[in-house]
Amino acid sequence: MTDEEFFTVFPDRQYRIRKPARILVKDKQRATYYGDECLGEFLSLGPHDKNRRRIIVWRLPEGNPHFDPMRQKLMVVPMLAFADEEIADNDAVLGPILHGIMEHARASY
User: Fold this and answer.
1) CA distances from 84 to 15, 80, 88 (A)
2) How far is it, in rounded angstroms, from Cα 84 to Cα 53?
3) Planar angle of CA 2, 13, 95, nearest 5 degrees
4) Residues 11-31: tens digit of each pLDDT
5) Distance between CA atoms of 49 and 39, rounded to whole angstroms?
């Protein structure tokens, strides 16, 4: 199920967590191949086990400056789960995790 379909089926949800998907990538020579979603972002997180990769998808709320009522705006945030961590897929858990990631990113600038 794509992210757009997920938020259409569950209109009350604002967040979703999932594993990275395989996407069609076009390189500089215009060759195409299937690669990992957000690969560059995950590589920037340092050495890690590939099985720990997760993506949090956030549907932007109406008060956000990038909100467009005619089109869903989705923000994709890559993260690494701890080796034995099981993350619940509900807004009460994912909201604070995403907020913490964004606060940490803002503090590091």
Assistant:
1) 22, 11, 13
2) 13
3) 105
4) 999 999 999 999 998 889 999
5) 13
- Alpha helices in 1-109, H assignment, sequence order: 3-9, 39-43, 91-107
Is there a contact between 57 and 16 (Cβ–Cβ < 8 Å)?
A: yes
The count of residues in the chain is 109
Q: Please write the tens of the pLDDT for every residue from 86-105.
A: 899 999 999 999 999 888 77
Give CA–CA dist 37/32, Å, rounded.
Answer: 14
Distances in whole angstroms, Cα of residue 59 to Cα of each of 25, 41, 63, 69, 107: 24, 20, 12, 12, 23
User: What gap in Å lies between CA 99 and CA 105, rounded to an integer?
Assistant: 10
In angstroms, rounded to a whole number, what is the distance separating the alpha carbons of residues 87 and 102?
Answer: 18
3-class DSSP assignment, residue 38: coil
Q: Where are the domains of the chain?
A: 3-107
